[in-house]
Write a structure and sequence with these properties.
Layout: H1 2-16, H2 18-32, E1 38-53, H3 58-63, E2 71-87, E3 90-103, E4 106-123, E5 126-133, E6 165-175, E7 180-189, E8 208-216, E9 219-226, E10 234-242, E11 247-264, E12 270-287, E13 292-300, H4 307-319, H5 327-338, E14 346-354, E15 363-372, E16 377-389, E17 392-402, E18 414-425
Antiparallel strand pairs: 1-2, 1-18, 2-3, 3-4, 4-5, 5-6, 6-7, 7-8, 8-9, 9-10, 10-11, 11-12, 12-13, 13-14, 14-15, 15-16, 16-17, 17-18
C-alpha cells in the first residue's frame, strides 16, 4: 500500500510539474560531473624489514666500517598527502611527503614538498604552471633516458612518487583530422641558484627545455630537448605504440653532450671528466588472456661505468681497509656516482605479475628481475600485494642480490632483504 501511494504521488507531481522536474534532474546530472573546489588524498605507511648482510662485500665495508654485523633490522614510516584547490581557470596542486627511519646506527627523519605549483588554464588549448613540479617525460617503466628534468626512478620500485624541481612551464595543444591527430608543445624553465634547485646542476642558469608531442598514426611520439645550462645540451625522442589490444612497445633514445662524471685515475685519484654519450631503451608490455602482465626492457646507460672502471673502484675500497690514505678517495667516489643505482652500462628488466591467481580475490603476486648484463649480476624480487581490506594495502617483498666478486649486485652490502609494507589510504 505504501508503494502504491508513493508511486501515485510521484505520478501526480510529474504530471503537474514535468518541466521543472526535468530541469532539476538535468542540473543534478551536470553537477555530478563538476570538479570539486578542493580534493585531497594520501596514505600512511609502516615498513619493517630485515637485511642479511654480506660482510665480505665492498658495500658492507663502506656502509658498516669496522663493524661485524651479520644482519640488521630497520623500521621506517612514511606519510604522503596530495591535493588540488580549484577556482575557475586557476588551480593549486601539492604533494607533501614525510618519512622516518630507525636502525641500529641511529634514527633519521625527513619532510619535504614533492610538488607545490599553481596552474592557469589560459585557454582551452593552453596552460601555464609555476612552482615545484615532478614531470613525467619518457615512456620507459624502469628507466627513462629522455627524462631530462626529473630525478631518476628507483627501478626496484619505479611507481613511487618523486620530488620535483621548481620550474615554470607552458603548454599548447592542437587537434587535427588525419594521420596527425594531436600535437602539443611544452616549454620549461628550471632556474638554478645556490638555494634553488641546487641539486639540479651548476647554479646561475635558467635551463630551458622543450617537449614536442604528437599522436601520429596511433603512435605516441615525443621529441625532447634541454639547452645548455647547468649541464650540457641534451636531446632525444621516445615512442609508444599498441601492436594489438594486449601488446604495447615503447622506446627511448637520448644524446647528452659535455656531461661530467667522477672517474678514478690510474694512480687511484679522483677527477672529473667531461664527455658526450648516448643512452637508449627498448621495451614492451604484454597482457595475457589470463591477466598476467609482463613488462620487459633493455636499457643502455651511455653515461655509466664500464666493468673495468667499476672493478677499479672495488679494488680501491678493498685496499682502503689497510691503506688509510685511500679511504677518503673511496668515500668520495662512492658519493659521486660509483654506488648510485644502475651505475654501469647495460641492464635488463623483467616484471611478471598475476592478478588474482587461483581465484584468490584481491591478491596480486609478482616477480621482478633486474640484471646487469655486463657483469651478469642481478637482483630478483618476488612479492605479493593484498588489497582485501578497506583502504589497506599489504605488500610482502623479498629482495635477493646475487653476483660474484667485483660485480654490481654481488658487492651490495645486503645479500637478502625481506620487508612488509602496510599502507593505509585516506
Amino acid at each position: 500500500m505504501r508503494c502504491g501511494r508513493a508511486a501515485g504521488a510521484v505520478a501526480l507531481l510529474t504530471a503537474l510539474a514535468a518541466v521543472p522536474i526535468a530541469r532539476a534532474a538535468e542540473t543534478f546530472d551536470v553537477s555530478a560531473f563538476e570538479k570539486k573546489a578542493f580534493e585531497w588524498n594520501g596514505f600512511v605507511e609502516l615498513r619493517p624489514e630485515r637485511q642479511w648482510l654480506r660482510r665480505d662485500s665492498t658495500g658492507y665495508q663502506l656502509q658498516y666500517p669496522g663493524e661485524t654485523r651479520s644482519s640488521v633490522d630497520r623500521r621506517s614510516a612514511a606519510a604522503e598527502v596530495s591535493g588540488v584547490l580549484r577556482h575557475g581557470s586557476l588551480s593549486f596542486n601539492f604533494t607533501g611527503h614525510a618519512s622516518g627511519l630507525d636502525e641500529p646506527r641511529g634514527a633519521d627523519s625527513d619532510g619535504r614538498m614533492y610538488e607545490a605549483y599553481a596552474s592557469w588554464q589560459v585557454t582551452p588549448r593552453g596552460i601555464a604552471e609555476l612552482g615545484k613540479r615532478a614531470l613525467r617525460w619518457g615512456k620507459g617503466y624502469a628507466w627513462s633516458p629522455v627524462a631530462f628534468l626529473e630525478r631518476p626512478k628507483d627501478p626496484s620500485d619505479p611507481e613511487l612518487a618523486r620530488e620535483g624541481f621548481v620550474m615554470a612551464t607552458g603548454a599548447l595543444v592542437r587537434s587535427f583530422e588525419g594521420p596527425l591527430q594531436t600535437l602539443s608543445l611544452m616549454s620549461a624553465l628550471v632556474p638554478t641558484t645556490s638555494g634553488l634547485n641546487a641539486d639540479f646542476g651548476r647554479p646561475g642558469h635558467l635551463n630551458p627545455a622543450f617537449k614536442l608531442y604528437g599522436l601520429v598514426f596511433d603512435s605516441d611520439i615525443d621529441l625532447t630537448y634541454a639547452a645548455r645550462g647547468s649541464d650540457g645540451p641534451r636531446f632525444g625522442f621516445d615512442f609508444s605504440r599498441n601492436l594489438g589490444s594486449n601488446l604495447e612497445v615503447h622506446g627511448e633514445w637520448a644524446r647528452t653532450a659535455d656531461a661530467s662524471r667522477a672517474l678514478l685515475t690510474p694512480g687511484n685519484g679522483l677527477a672529473m671528466h667531461t664527455r658526450s654519450y648516448t643512452s637508449s631503451l627498448l621495451g614492451l608490455r604484454y597482457l595475457t588472456q589470463h591477466d598476467t602482465t609482463i613488462v620487459f626492457e633493455l636499457y643502455r646507460n651511455g653515461g655509466g661505468y664500464s666493468t673495468s672502471e667499476m672493478a677499479q673502484f672495488f679494488d680501491v675500497v678493498r685496499a682502503s681497509a689497510s691503506v688509510s690514505a685511500l679511504a677518503p678517495v673511496a668515500g668520495r667516489a662512492a658519493a659521486q656516482g660509483y654506488t648510485r643505482p644502475n651505475a654501469m652500462r647495460r641492464y635488463a628488466y623483467l616484471r611478471v605479475s598475476q592478478k588474482e591467481p587461483f581465484n584468490i580475490v584481491d591478491l596480486t603476486p609478482s616477480v621482478t628481475l633486474i640484471s646487469n648484463t655486463d657483469d651478469h649480476s642481478y637482483l630478483v624480487m618476488p612479492e605479493a600485494v593484498y588489497t582485501g581490506f578497506d583502504n589497506l594495502e599489504l605488500r610482502l617483498r623479498l629482495a635477493l642480490n646475487r653476483g660474484g666478486d667485483s660485480t654490481e649486485y654481488g658487492e651490495r652490502p645486503a645479500r637478502s632483504r625481506v620487508e612488509l609494507r602496510v599502507r593505509y589510504f585516506f
